[in-house]
Amino acid sequence: MNSDTTRHFQDQLQSELTAVRKALLEELKQSSQKFANELAKSLEQSSPSEWLDIAATQLNPQQYPNFQRLLKLEAALCQIDIGQFGYCCDCETQLNMAELKADPTIQRCNSCCQKRHTS
Fold first, then answer.
1. Is the predicted pLDDT of residue 62 greater than 80, yes or no?
2. Where are zinc fingers of the kind dksA C4-type found along the chain (predicted)?
């Protein structure tokens, strides 16, 4: 994958990451649960780079789709940083470009996804 394509994906991921952080914060603020409101205050006072560590200990990812997406976005950006973006995290084959364009947070090729779900 060339650097222009990678940069395009990085910009797209960063933009979505900003929107998802904002949506998660609003979701927590609007919650009727006290811990969620306190977590929102804690996140607002923290650097966005610390959000995953702070929230991971207090949230059930299944309850918060924005948190699940945040995890995926952060992982994809990490893959860009280490030069592994666009490759399967299990077998390291190049991922399908059409699938990456549909969701740049995918981590596995179809073959490894199927293996993972059947085992």
1. no
2. 88-112
